[in-house]
Every structure is written in C-alpha cells, then in structure tokens.
UniProtKB/TrEMBL annotation:
Metabolic or biological pathway, per its Swiss-Prot or TrEMBL entry: Amino-acid biosynthesis; L-threonine biosynthesis; L-threonine from L-aspartate: step 5/5
Chemical reaction(s) catalysed: O-phospho-L-homoserine + H2O = L-threonine + phosphate
Positions of the Tryptophan synthase beta chain-like PALP domain: 103-418
A GO term, aspect molecular function: threonine synthase activity
Family that this chain belongs to: Belongs to the threonine synthase family.
PANTHER family: THREONINE SYNTHASE FAMILY MEMBER, THREONINE SYNTHASE-LIKE 2
Gene3D superfamilies: 3.40.50.1100
GO biological process: threonine biosynthetic process
Protein name: Threonine synthase
Keywords assigned by UniProt, alphabetized: Amino-acid biosynthesis, Lyase, Pyridoxal phosphate, Threonine biosynthesis
EC number: 4.2.3.1
Species per Swiss-Prot/TrEMBL record: Desulfosudis oleivorans (strain DSM 6200 / JCM 39069 / Hxd3) (Desulfococcus oleovorans)
Amino acid sequence: MNPSDFPCDVQPHLVPRPGGDMVYKCLGCDATHDINTLLYTCPSCNSVLLIEDRDFDRHRAIPGPLWRKIFDFRKSLNIPALKGVYRFHEFIGPDLPLEAVVWLGEGGTPVVEASPLLQQKVGIRLFFKNDGQNPSASFKDRGMASAFSRINFLLQSGILSNVLAVCASTGDTSASAALYAAYLKPRVTSAVLLPHGKVTPQQLSQPLGNGAAVFEIAGVFDDCMKVVEELSENYNVALLNSKNAWRILGQESYSYEIAQDFSYDTRNLTVVVPIGNAGNITAVMNGFLKFFRIGIINALPKIIGVQSDHASPVFQYYREPDPARRRFAPVTVKPSVAQAAMIGNPVSMPRVIRLADRYDQAAGQRRVFVVEVSEQQIMDWQLTANRHGNIVCTHGGESLAGLVTARQQGLVTDDDMAVLDSTAHMLKFSNFQQMYFENAFPAHYGVTPDPALVNAPQLVEVPGIATPADRETLSGPEMTTFVRKTADEIANRLGLKRTKQ
C-alpha cells in the first residue's frame, strides 16, 4: 500500500526521518562517547556500553495509541527497509537513513500457539516465537541487521573504507555475521572463531558457505571471546559479538514484535528466554522498558531467564536474595546441548544487572527472574514440544524447561500467558536429537533417553518376494506383489485393518 492510502493521523509518521541524539553510554562511569566510531567498551573505564538516545522523550509527543497504529499500518508498506527490525526505526536506529538499512528478511518471525495437548501438559497457555525462521535460522540476525546497517552507514558516509568483521561463536553468531558480511562484499569481509569440536556440523557449514575465514580454537566460547577481544583492541576490525551495543539494539525488536502480536496488552504476559552471553535478555528488557516508558504497552511483562546447570553464572548471581550481597563470579562450563548457553562469563552481565534493577523499579515489583534447568530437562522438553507439532531447538527446549520450573516455583501462575524463545531452527541441532535416540550422549552431559521419546526408522522387508533393490527394474506381477505385501506389513505394524479384500 502507498502512504496516501492510510489514515490522516498516521500518514506523517509512516516513513521515518533520521533523528535523535544517539551516544554510547558507559554502564561503569556513565561517560558518553560519539557513535560514529566503532566502540565496544568505554575508553575511560573499559566497561560495556549501551546506546542511548538523549532525546528519547521526544517520542512522548506521539500518544501511545497512535504509536500502535503507526507500527500496525507500517507492516503494510512495501518499503524493504521497514519490513524487518527497522519497522520500529524510532526505537532501534532513529538516526539511520533508510538507504543504509540492510534487510535480508530478518524480523517478523511468527508467534505460534503451542498445541492444545502440550499446553495441557504444561498447565499454562503458551506460545513459541520461532526465531529460527530468520534468514540464517537464528535470532542473531536481529542484532546483525542493526550492527551491519550501522557499518553500512559508516561506509556510505566515508567514515570507514573497508571492514573486517570478526566474532567468537558457538555457531549461530558466526553464521549470521558471515551472512550479513557477505551481503556487503567487497567492502566488508568476515572472520569467525569457533571452539574446536563444539559446533554442530550444520552450524559450521554456514560461515564456510558464506565465504568467511573460519578459525577453530582449542577451548570453549569464553576462550574464543578472549582472542576476539584481543583482536578488536589491537587491530582494525569490527567486533560483532553482543559486546557490540548495536547488536543489543537490533535484538530489542523481539520485544516490540511480541508486544504487537499481543495487541500491546502485556499485563499477563511472561517472556521466557535462554541466557548465553546475556545479550538477548538485555535487549528484551530494554525493549519492553522503552515501549512502557512511552505508553505503547500497558505493563511490563514478567521475564524469565533460563540457564543450564552446566553454565549458570547469572542464576548463581540471582540465587542470593539480598541484592546488597550479590557478587558476580564467572564459572567453568561443561558441555551443553544448548550450545549458546556454554558461556561462563557473559559479556552483557553488567547490562543485565543495571537493566533488571531498572525494570523492577519501573514495574513497582520484581518482574525479572532466573531459573536453572538440567540437560535432561532441556532434551526431554525439546523432544516433547516437537512431538506436539512445534519447531523447537535445544534452546527452545531450555525455555520450555525453564517455564515448567518457574511454574513449579510459583513464579508463573494460571492467569499468565507465556511466550518462549526458540532461538534457532531445530535442524541446526539435529545431532543432539540423534544422540538422544541412539543413547549416545557422553556421560558428562547427564542425559538418559526416555524410551517414550525415542524414535527410529523401521526397515520394512518381506521375505520371499522380489524388491526394487534386487534388480534395476521391477514390474508386472512382481511389482504388484511387492507393493501389496509391503503395504500389508506396514499396516500390520500400525495395527490397521484392511477395508478391501
């Protein structure tokens, strides 16, 4: 539709113009820094950064109900730059001209209600947000769209000439970074660092296919991250992990889309997200805070962060009930089926602490919680969800296990509705499903298959008849016999009765 086809009160706001007063804001010393540089930590105190619009309150000039109409009608525009996360341009990158926006199809992923039987099993109304339907098959594309749009703007403005994008990854970040970098070739190239032997074959194939330089490092993600930080501090490269504050901005779109999908009524909503490097839960909190501050949503949803007991530094921090006595301590991780959770020292932890406090204060009560689940629970609930017609990765299984745990602890009530983050496509982690079915998990995972969830193909062979495998062609009576006998054998195994003789 064309802008002239929309209501008069919406028309002036449909196509946003660049604006705002954007700065890097340090969470350690509160210093601000120019955004037209590639900064990842504060030059003054080395703390992590958030991006802040110092003129954010200008958005109050538009009432909350009108903002809702703007975003709802904007979905109908045929403008590529506004089809993805920049549908919410004013809240993500207000100073960015639309011609700099890189859109590869990310954003707008569906919120799908779980099957009635699964909801009955869990005991609460729940939905999955299938972020595996982003272009690189994970939620990381939201942040990459923001970060690479900013890089594209700096290239178009002549502030940068060429960029080497680097990241550490457990799989999804590298796939996303390599994809977006490849789109901006030749001025942008990419290199990714992966922990050797700890990335699924499917995930490894993605950056290789997009032409990235792929380096495998002995150790875990935290070790790769240290190397990437060394590179970013001493060489002319662009760091694309969630230490990059532009990544957080793009991932805020997850909150905005959920608000829109529930008609901006968030009073009884609970959002469940897995915690890895803590960028996603940071973005979810900040996104909802922005919408609440302007009056676009009527309440701050509960947020449940979930960690595996194989890597739970955020859970350990919030396990202490007295905020004054909380001390963050990195942990040594063990292998996890939720590979992005294998992070013992999440870079966004200072952001989590600051924003969780701000979130609870704005809500007037505690609304951010963290729970811990086992590897066994993650696999069992992932397979249970998918057996009920959902598309859930291991991290989605972690979210579902976290919801069940939160419900058992009384954090979630019968009156709540839950949206669970399935961060990637289930096919990226199909090797873990196969290990489960074959009872092939190494002992340190602590996963024992539930026979009721195990599945395997059945070879159908009928003795005494010719088959297509016996010769190049099978026809006539032999083919008729093969088809009839094979169908009878399958029907027998399924307990079917013949309706025709």
